[in-house]
C-alpha cells in the first residue's frame, strides 16, 4: 500500500511539474497588447534617455543628485546590454551621447572613487568601449574606477585599512 502511495505521489508531482512548466511557457508567449518584452524594454530605455540624472532612482527628489548614483549606473549598463541584444543602434548612440558630457560639462557628476557603490559607474564607459562605441578615454575612465575599487581610500579609518588584509587572510584560511 505504501509503495503504491509513493508511486502515485511521484507520478502526481511529475504531472504537476509538466503542467506547471507548460503553463509558464504559454504565459511567456501570449503577452497582453503593449507588453511584448521588446516593447517594454524600449519604453524603459527611452524613459531613461529622457530622464535627467536621478538621486538614487528618484527623478523627483527634493535635492538634485551630486553624482551618478548606483541605480542610474546599473540602469545605464542594462540599457546598453539591451540595445546591443536588440541591435538597436539608434538607442546605443543615445546612451553613448548621454555619457559624453561626463567627460566635460558634467564631469562633476562622476562619483568619487572610494567605494564599490560609487565605482560601479565605471562599468558604463567600459561597456561603451567593449561595444566599440567609444575610444580610449572610455577605457581609461572605466579602468580607473575598476582599479581604484581595490585601493584603500586615503581617508579610511584604521579598521577599514585592515579590511583588505582580513579578507585575504580569511580566504587563505578557508582554502
Write up this protein.
- The chain is mainly α and 175 residues long.
- 62% of the residues lie in helices and 0% in strands.
- The chain contains eight helices and no strands.
- The longest helix has 26 residues.
- The model has no long low-confidence stretch (mean pLDDT 84).
Question: What would the keywords be for this entry?
Answer:
8 helices, 0% strand, 175 residues
Characterize this entry briefly:
Helices cover 62% and strands 0% of the residues.
Shape, principal axes of CA atoms = globular
Biggest β-sheet: count, sense, barrel?
A: none
Ends apart, CA distance between termini: 50 Å
Tell me the strand percentage band: under 5%
Q: Are there runs of 5+ residues with pLDDT below 50, and where? A: none
Domain count: 1
- Strand segment count: 0
Helix count, per DSSP?
8
Q: How much helix is in the residues?
A: 55-70%
Write the H/E string, N to C.
Answer: HHHHHHHH
Structural class: mainly alpha
Radius of gyration equals 24 Å
Taking all residues together, what is the mean pLDDT? 84
Helix and strand topology:
Elements: H1 2-27, H2 37-50, H3 70-85, H4 89-99, H5 116-119, H6 123-130, H7 136-148, H8 158-174
Helix pairs in contact: 2-3, 3-4, 3-6, 6-7
